[in-house]
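Page 47, continued from p. 46.
Same chain as before, 233 aa.
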Amino acid sequence: MVAILSAILITLVYLMALAIFDLDNTLIAGDSDHSWGEFLVTHNLVDQDHYKAMNDKFYIDYENGCLDICKYLEFSLKALVGLSENKLDKLHRQFMVEMIEPLKLPKAALLIEQHRLAGDRLLVITSTNHFIVEPIVKSLGIDELLATDPEIIDGFFTGKVVGTPTYQDGKVERLISWLKENDEVLDGSYFYSDSINDLPLLLKVERPIAVDPDDTLREEALRRHWKIISLRN
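Result:
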């Protein structure tokens, strides 16, 4: 009996895997970083014309796989500088209601629950900064997150970044560190993403899955015989 129970336990442990998700345009039907910029513009919290033009330009660069992540972070984090924690928390709660709730996908919630019921460990890795995405990820029922980390000193954002941004190869670098820190492996791992920017990490996991992919990722997924799914249709 003990031998049988041990075998069952070993089998269950083996079957449990790491399920990694991109966030923007994967688990939600839009880009939270770009939406935050639109929120700031709508509420006249920035120079509207200039900020909207730059926000749109950087988003197009991202879609085309040619985003200068350092320049974008310098631009996007500047809007947080000088605002108190209470002010930012209030703005973010409003942002969640106005911009994020309409982007949530019932099929994404079902996918997350499917992995949870299978006993998989759930992790979101996103290039968007931690301030924007942490409440979103928690609202999706996922506790573990790797995101670009803004520098905070004495409770205020400085406009700078701590460590490696979780973008393109940076996602792989940060994940490798996380795996070591958490005594995790990529055996049986999944990664769900919509973007060709995530190709480096898609190549690292055992089960890469393209979710409502952009045209370039769709071509890559078809060429490599990766699974393609939609959480929108």
